[in-house]
Amino acid sequence: MSPIFSAGSDGRCIRYALLLLVCCGVYPGIGHSATQTDNRTSPVGASQPQAIGGDKNSYSLTFKQLGRRDPLYLRGVESTDSVDFGIRADQVVTGVQVVLHYGYSALMLPELSQINVLVNDKVAASLPLPREQAGKDLEKVVEIPARLITDFNRLDLQLIGHYTMQCEDPLHSSLWARVSNDSQLNIQYSPIALKNDLALLPVPFFDRHDARPLVLPFVFDTSPSAAKLEAAAALSSKFGALASYRTATFPASVGQLPAKGNAIVLVTHRESLPLGELSSNAASGPSVTMMTNPNDPYGKLLVISGRNDAELKTAAMAVALGSQSMSGATALIDHFDPLPVRVPYDAPNWLPTDRPVKLGELVDARQLHVSGYSPEDIKIALRLPPDLFEWRGRGAPLLLKYRYTPQQFSTNSALLVHLNDHLVRSMQLPSIPNLNGGPDLLDWLKKDDSLPREASMFLPLDIATFESQLQMRYLYDYVKQGECRDVIVEDMRGQIEGDSTLDLSGLDHYTAMPDLGKFRDSGFPFTRLADLSETAVVMPGTLEPATLGAFLTVLGRFGESTGYPATGLQVIQAHDVEAVSDKDLLVFATGNDQPLLKQWADALPARSEGSRHFFDLSDLALRIHDWFSPDPKAALRKTRANLIWSGSGPPYLAGFESPLKSGRSVVVVASSEPARLAEVTAAMIGGDDYKDLIQGRLAVIQDKQITTLTADQPYYVGELSWFRHLQLLLSRHLSGMLLSTLLGFVLLCALIFLGLRAQAKRRLS
Q1: What is the 3-state secondary structure of 484-499?
Q2: Half-sphere exposure of residue 8: CA atoms within 13 angstroms, side-chain side
Q3: Any idea where the domains of the chain sit in the sequence?
């Protein structure tokens, strides 16, 4: 047989060889590599992924951003920990790298020990553990084959560790590795164009597989009216609720579509925006349309339109409350009945306060089961209403029903219950000989290897926050059998029953205000009703895009708190404020375009007059250790001085009681320049860049620094029983308590005297 290629001077053999490699997908710049040493794949015809800094279609996520609050600790002969990540529906992965920052024990045998990297239960790489690098902070880049990546993925890190060639203790202290949660995942992708179908909603505007913060622009055709702002608020709070822990920001523009990506567009005059064929078609009513962004073939626009503001608001409410029922590129809303007005404290994300709530309602049933001698904690997120009043009380009653596997011999097995990392109670898990159950117990264990138990306790609310976490940890005692006899059998089981209950129904709602900490964490008091039907937003006279973006981002924070869109919000101008005197007011101010700041100057702890800025100062900023005191009086600091200066003023948040009606609250979001309102919303979102927290009555934001200048708390909101209110009142006024005690003593003596006198008369008669 003649050879296929001949070594001619024209180099044809080289070209033929390259052509064959391309067709087979082996040439490294075009096809994919099948070798284990390279361990990378790409679609045929695509180039290999470049470094994260040189690829515009790429992004990075740390393990901390993926939900790992703590480093990954791997212990024992074999242990595994994992991180979950997802891929957006409008992306196809072309390359993935895991950048691991890790360290390991110096006592493990390098020839028998390794760390395996698995993706969706398939091995992507095995990292050797040479002894000369042990005990150091190491970095390793691991290539993940793109063919292993799906829409939702689990990255497992598995330690296989041995410290001797002879018999070994499987839980020896020398068997460990630590992977930092600063390790990151680098993802390269190619965008794909999705079809225009409303059935995809909320994709691509929000994709639950994307762990990055949501940035979703809003576009208004013209300077928006109050009704159009109310429609936008319902949508931003809806997407804020969807974004949840990711956080969300909503930049705004007027008459200008984004150059790239997705956006929400609100129009009543379609010809004012370049919307292609949609601009020439007259709207016949409230409608919702998904279309391709004219500036980006991979971006989508969600166009909310109507012939007037009322129809546009109807279309927006339909998206906020019922987008799951839409399909096709365009949906015309023929009829939409808004939902009934919400009642206080019924936000979907908050724990109910009118009945005991079952723990099985708060988490998936699979998360209530654990196994092994030292399993992961069972964690249940609790969003408690911010105004729960628990003065001199025992806390919230928790009826915990649990099951465990009794051991043959143990003395230290226990179930620990924590709230926000504070120990609440420790319950022993007795071994079989200590149960004294007799034949009945043995018969039970033959049918079911776990025993049901229950315990009652109270969760102390003085250590609780709005976003609290209930943690339950099973610790099983590992009884060593002796040399060469220790074998771990992971047959230990633990379970928290789903019908365990936490009861908040007996607690009052009563709290001191103003408290910007509650506003930052939960949007309180505005979110007391999930639909914000008792809230009015007072906008400045000039609506700059930066002001609109701040408004939408704050409403997105409210939606993240409640899990419900702000369908009952009312937007007004300053001259209409008397008509909403019975509502809580959120006031936006930029420069001198908010007249309410002058009208309410006496109540404000900060104000601006032209280039002059006035702030009330106290010594709270110098008493940091008192900010977190359980004593509410620790945060009371009277104004010590007034500071006045000229120039550009920093943005700030201020809270005070409404001058229009007692018991109602006002929060002012203000800045001398509209663009600097973004600093306020960024401080509300927070993050690692902010060491201080917004709290008190006045918070000034300056270059990532938050200064709380005053923390006066002159008024209270909520309701107490008359007897509890009297107790609280007397506890705050020593003279009143002494006077009441004296009057009570005199009254008691008078009653005793009259009683004895009456008895003497009866005896003498």
Answers
A1: CCCCCCCCCEEEECCC
A2: 11
A3: 1-31, 32-191, 198-332, 356-479+490-506, 509-718, 733-764
Q: How many CA atoms lie within 13 A of 228 on its CB side?
A: 23
- For tokens 């620790």, the residue is 634
Other Cβ atoms less than 10 A from the Cβ of 206: the count is 21
Q: At what angle do helices 226-243 and 309-322 cross, to 10 degrees?
A: 10
The model carries a pTM of 0.83
Q: For 273-284, how does the pLDDT look when each residue is reduced to its tens digit (9 = 90+)? A: 777 666 656 667
Q: Where are the alpha helices (DSSP H) in 580-620?
A: 596-599
Q: Does domain 32-191 have CATH number 3.40.50.2300?
A: no
- The reply to whether domains 198-332 and 356-479+490-506 share a CATH topology is no
Cα–chain-centroid distance for residue 448?
Answer: 38
Query: What homologous superfamily does CATH list for 198-332?
Result: Chitobiase/beta-hexosaminidase domain 2-like (3.30.379.10)
The whole-angstrom separation of Cα 656 and Cα 676 is 22
Cross-strand pairs, 289: 303, 330
- The torsion angle over the Cα atoms of residues 19, 24, 25 and 26, rounded to 10 degrees, is -80
Q: Encode pLDDT of 368-421 as tens digits.
A: 999 887 788 999 999 999 999 877 778 899 999 999 988 777 778 899 999 999
Output the CA–CA distances (angstroms, integers) from residue 287 to 299, 302, 316, in the order listed.
Answer: 20, 10, 9
CB contact at 8 A, 480 and 425: no
Contact 390, 507 (CB under 8 A): yes
Handedness of CA 176, 181, 187, 191 (dihedral sign): positive
C-alpha torsion sign, points 55, 56, 58, 59:
positive
Q: Which of 492, 550, 764 is nearest to 673 (CA)?
A: 550
CA dist., res. 107 & res. 315, Å (int): 66
Distance, in Å, from the CA atom of 307 to the CA atom of 286, rounded to the nearest integer, reads 7
CATH of domain 356-479+490-506: 2.60.120.260
Closest by Cα among 631, 639, 673 to 656: 639
528-542 burial by CB neighbour count: b if 16+ within 10 A, else e? bbbbbbbbbbbbbee
Ramachandran angles phi, psi of 197, nearest 5°: -145, 120
